[in-house]
Amino acid sequence: MPESSTSARALHVLQTVFGYPAFRGQQAEIVDHVAQGGDALVLMPTGGGKSLCYQIPSLVRDGVGVVISPLIALMQDQVDALAELGVRAAFLNSTQSFDQAMRTERRVRTGDLDLLYVAPERLMTPRCLELLQASNIALFAIDEAHCVSQWGHDFRPEYIKLSVLHERFPQVPRIALTATADPQTRAEIAHNLQLDDALQFVSSFDRPNIRYQIVEKANGRKQVLDFIKEEHAGDAGVVYCLSRKKVEETAEFLRAHGVAALPYHAGMDIATRSANQSRFLREDGIVMVATIAFGMGIDKPDVRFVAHLDLPKSIEGYYQETGRAGRDGAPANAWMAYGLQDVVQQRRMIDESEADENFKRVQTAKLDAMLGLCETLSCRRVRLLDYFGQESAPCGNCDSCLNPPVSFDGSVQVQKLLSSIYRVDQRFGAGHVIDVLRGIDSDKVKQWRHDKLSTFGVGSDISEAEWRAILRQAIALGLVQIDHDAYGSLKLTEQARPVLRGEQKVQLRQYQKPARPKRQAVRA
Ligand code: ADP
Ligand code: ZN
């Protein structure tokens, strides 16, 4: 098929089937390349529009597009959504009955499908491979392709076996897609899936119109109210909270202060929840106060801000949630208030979860990276993009760039903190350790005779809030850990030693009292 007619057909399908006027970013190039039979490796952030990169070539080419995805739970929804657009789609996975599977298999064989979603372990069965070999295949799309990387945390052994596709179906184009962009994962995908000769499409993860701002939390909901009133009066936005209860309370509070806020969380009855969602989508200037249950598949272009009142679990989560702001390309704000309590709470949630040790380790590492972003002395965007394996220069559009934090040699303060943690036998949480530092003779201090310690009161010149900020930075720097026990005991790490011995200096961020947010020209 000549090139121009493929692009014309692809655009026609985009407009008539999916109802979008134009391709986004690199979609057009990717679609053309695959529609013409080329292999591709696509790295695109979540929400970037990866699905169309294989759906449209599947419709443009003869035969069925086979989509390999580990996300079995989403297959029914994906198929239903496609069916609504008039696309003939079905899936094969372990959740369906034998009869359902048989029906789908028949449709594959008779050429009655445009798209087939398959779980990788299912695809690898002799039965499925034979079925596909006897059918007309338009392409193979390998979604969540980072699952083939042993280096990542999502490794799935079935993915390694997907290299047989190349051997068994050498004529069928393959497109692998992922939102994980680090160079090592990329190399492993290309190698393990035998996609070394595939064209690579690496989208930038940068969202230049989003201004990142992370502030010290004092009274979170009052701070977010000020932020909305001063910078976003009448704008649509999302305020994320960790718990359902906090969602309800915050929405109530904002409403009481004249903000058109609505709650959204998975515990609400479905009717109210979807009513709130459609008001957010249709009306102007609604502020949705929500848990992270809100946002999947929400495509509202003019969300002017996303605020976090609690720390996200990972940079991936933060990026995804903040990414819902400013899809139209106009200036938008990503604002977050965070404090030591967030770190303690998130640690506790990891420790108390049922997950295995390895998973907990990965979650802890992700939380640490998030903390590093919060505590960084340099550009937030540089740090964020670096996490996704992309180099960049200071952006001029984040709080660190616009109002550079002042740093100072905080070695002495950190030594005082570390010694106090050590002197209380690494068995007490933040509140108690800070009481000891500040020389507060609380009941607990007296009970444990900690007023007799050499570190009692050595930090009385520093406020409690400031000690909390120092402690957070010590955690972010990997000098202190919050322990698994119920008290959130503080423990010293190996890295604390050289600091305690005075062999290593520590730069700290100059403490600034939580201030009212600075006025920004949001509308250009
Ligand atoms: P990803 O898989 O990369 O996370 P999706 O394929 O789910 O992203 O797409 C994210 C959202 O963007 C979806 O709501 C989708 O319909 C929308 N979208 C994708 N491409 C376009 C486009 N060219 N024009 C308008 N909306 C698009
Ligand atoms: Zn910056």
Automatic annotation (TrEMBL):
Record protein name field: DNA helicase RecQ
Top EC group: isomerase
Give the record's keywords alphabetically.
ATP-binding, DNA damage, DNA recombination, DNA repair, DNA-binding, Helicase, Hydrolase, Isomerase, Metal-binding, Nucleotide-binding, Zinc
In its keyword annotation, does this UniProt entry include Cell division? no
Q: Which reaction does it catalyse?
A: Couples ATP hydrolysis with the unwinding of duplex DNA by translocating in the 3'-5' direction
What is the top-level taxon of the source organism? Bacteria
EC number(s) recorded for this UniProt protein:
5.6.2.4
Q: Could you say which protein family the record assigns here?
A: Belongs to the helicase family. RecQ subfamily.
Q: Which SUPFAM superfamilies match?
A: HRDC-like, P-loop containing nucleoside triphosphate hydrolases
> Locate the Helicase C-terminal domain: which residues?
220-370
Give one GO molecular function term. Answer: DNA binding
Concerning NCBIfam families, the annotation shows: recQ, recQ_fam
Q: Which residues form the Helicase ATP-binding domain?
A: 31-199
Q: Which regions form coiled coils? A: none
UniProt keyword Nucleotide-binding present: yes
What SMART domains does the database record attribute to this sequence?
Answer: DEXDc, HELICc, HRDC, RQC
This protein's GO CC annotations:
bacterial nucleoid; cytoplasm; replisome
Matching entries from PROSITE patterns are given as:
HELICASE_ATP_BIND_1, HELICASE_CTER, HRDC
Q: Which GO terms describe its biological process?
A: DNA recombination; DNA repair; DNA replication; SOS response
List, separated by semicolons, the cofactors it needs: Zn(2+); Mg(2+)
